[in-house]
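OP here, attaching both records as promised.
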Amino acid sequence: MPSIINNFQQKIKKRMRNLITLLLVVFAMSFSEAQMKKWTLEECVAYAVDNNLTIEQFELDLENAKIDKSDAIGDLLPNLNANATASKNVGFTIVSTSNIPVTGNQTTFNMNGGFSSNITLFNGLRNVRQLHRAKLNAIANQYRLDDLKDDIRLNVANAYLQVLSNKEQLRTFRAQYAVTEQDLKRTKELVESGVVPRGDLLEIEATAANQEQQIVNGESLVLISRVNLAQLLQITDYENFDIADEEFEVPPSDILKNPAKVIFDKALSFRNDIKFSESNVELAEKDLQIAKGAYLPTLTGFFQYGTRYSDATGSVPDGSGGTFTPGFIDQLWIFDGISYGAQLNIPIFNGWNTRNSVKRSKINLERAKLQLEQDKLDLESNIQQAYVDVATFEKAYEAALKTLEARRVAYEYAKERFDVGLMNSFDFSQAQARLDNAEADAIRTKYDYIFRLKILEFYFGLPLSLD
């Protein structure tokens, strides 16, 4: 008897341990799910812009452009350089302080020092225009960076909506499977009671198996789309990355009330890709001006101060009729000197380098102008296509909703007939499959329409948002 009680107690303890372990696992899973961040579209866009590697590279280019601007400012300022030389000579030498030759094996120590400064007074305004160019280049790099951010925002929005679409389709597949399970259970009971033939059960089982496969495929699509979005955000923890579980309806929008030409004209005023192309034209014009400046003379001002010392220096007049031998400090003051002036260089012939440089600059200017016109044409084409897409996908979505409603009514009617034995399982499965396809098509066209709508609004200057 005691052994039976002990065995019973051990079983109770074992079950309690298993129960506690199960509760801890469930709690841990719930806690992990609660801690997992659910990303909104706005958060995804902001994170992608802040962490994209290409953006970081473009930001470094922008920093380089700012340094170029600092270089151009420095070219307008005078330079200042100091110099010092110390040497010993053995044998024949010329004393640096008196220019007197010294022969024999005498060793002399000489030292020279001073500083000099140069400034460009005029060089065909190339230094001034180089500063203007550096400022324009910094602005152009900023436009290029902002244009890249616009592209990333659109790519993230597209990937985000793809996850939403796949998730909503997966929910639909699971809901459809739940209904089929009820039909399968009821059909089994009817088959067992001999009311319907076994073939009807097999048909329902085939439908259930097909829906299970749809669920598996849907889960795979959700996972793949989540990974794609995470990669755009430079996030590698794919398992713990997910977006907010929300269902979005088509947001209200009056964008189609604006003609495509109005949207295009507004886009020209703020689109960063157009601003970047316009900046490239201005840069090319400035390069042409700089190249032409080489035809003009260059005027440079200079100032130099120097002094010297030599231990071979002899006696020098003291200013009162006598002489004395100057020491180190005295020589620095006695033998110092200043020179200043200006130098003019007039270009006459340099092997056609300047002429060819001007020709290349003209070609680059024409190329930049053509690229600007091409970018405008591309923008107009993209806006026209986006405008047509919005109208087309709106109609496609409305048609999909009407089809879905019709398929749903037909399914309800078929289900009523199937329940009373007036329709076989094959025809009922066909009605259910048509409903499933209509629901999937409605979801797909809805998110296709939302994305096209957001693209057109983005061209109009509206921020990306699903509100």
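Record two, same layout:
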Amino acid sequence: MPSPGSGGDDSAATVASLRRVVEHQAELLRREDEVNRILVQTVLAGGSLDDLCEALVTLFPGVALVTTTDGRTVAKAGSEESLAHVMGLECFDRTGRLIVEDEPVGVRAAGVTKSERAMVRIVAGTSDHGLLAIFTPGRALTTTDVHGLERAAAVAALAITKDQAVSAVEGKYRAEFLRDTLVGRVGSPTEAVAHAASLGWDLDRRMVVVVAETDEDDAHTARTSDEVRSLQDRFVRAWVQAVRTREPKAPVAGFSQEVVALMPAPCGGDGEHDAVMRSVGEMVKIVRGDGGGGRRSFSTGVSRPVDSVADIPRAYSEALRAVAVGRQMQGESAVMHFDGLGIYRLLSLIPDTADLRAFVDEALGALATDDQASYADLRQTLQVLLDTNLNVAETARLLFFHYNTLRYRIAKLEQMLGPFTTDPQLRLTLALALRIRQMRGV
């Protein structure tokens, strides 16, 4: 039989248990009220994404991040020590991109009760703007924390939508000015420099024009117009961010299928070309995907340096030519400086590729085709011979041929093409034909 006092003990235990439940629920409500209060204050103050992240780290001590849909960080908050720790986690690649493909979000994240990180999507209507993430090293996140993060994602969506609306207006105005600059319709150089300064741009320095053009022809594509517009917007945003991160005062804007930037160039010197191409190459690498951007194949052209706004239209034409010819020389995803075009610069001016094809056929004869497997080897032998100025010993070394083997090949080539070893005009013709054959689309 239960002891006389056991009923009282059970009642006390029940009351204590209920009290703990009530206290826990009260703590959850207090926590949710605190989250709502801070988020409302952030909204009313017109807070940016950085402000939102700062507010989140007061609620969830650690690190808060906002990323694009493909993982590029656009806002963050947290101590330097915490940021360094978080960026070293396995969910980030070597460039600092959050590997969103492997991270659970939304409902899946809510079910992870022992995780020290949680992520939710930032959605406005049907538009996915990225991810909002919190990292709390040493503290497991609860379902309630994830619900608070979802509320914060709504604030992030408001901030992003507001920024996009403002940026759209500013971007259109800036793009119109840059377009006028590229075609020489901005008045005097002094007026252009002053107007650019009012937009936060610096045109009063030595510059190169960089053009990044998508390789896909949007006028002839199976993609829907919405998909094309979305891809182009992402392409432009990736380039704008890459340029502004490196040079905040560099003019940059996107147009139908291209992005144009006026990047500063060193003040002359032997290393100017290499420095410019190294800088452009780093931005191209970021946009292509190492930093999570782009997602479209594109080719890039770089002009010669200019020292005056008046010379920008010429530099723009050079950059466009570098894009077009670079794509012919290297295929898609080419990166080409105008000075690197060489003879291709002249060949690209011939509008009828049928004429170029006929020239190749007449000059190379059967070697213009791949009817026999040996023709490709013979073309390579001819190319190296011409590149080494008919230095037989050097050609044999480069091709790993015995001297007599190369002599036999030279004799065979002269039987097919004529006495190119003694006729400089024929050598020039053959060299041009080989270059033309390498061009895409010919």
